Amino acid sequence: MNATRERPEIRFLTSGDVSAHERAAAERAVRDALAGARGVTSVQVTLSVVADRSLPRPALAQAVVEFDGRRVRAQAAAPRIDEAVDMLRERLAIRASSLQAG
Q1: pLDDT (tens digit, 9 = 90+) per residue, 66-83?
Q2: Rounded-to-integer distance, Cα 7 and Cα 20, Å
Q3: 10-101 is a CATH 3.30.160.100 domain
């Protein structure tokens, strides 16, 4: 049996003004956050931008990751989607590493 297992495909849900470039950046960020994680069986990422200038943080990035049957969720809201994705990367990396340690 091959000891190295391919990472599952990242499923995306998007709403609002989310470009292909921003989606690709989110995919890289999530893969970076999960680089050392073991047992990842599924990943779903939601990117959403609300077109309302009165909102202080209209961009949302969220990831739900399943590790051998346990679900972990991380999310971040920010003024811009790239900022939300950066915060998501940090938060997901922390949650993944604490789950692996515990």
Answers
A1: 998 899 999 999 999 999
A2: 21
A3: yes
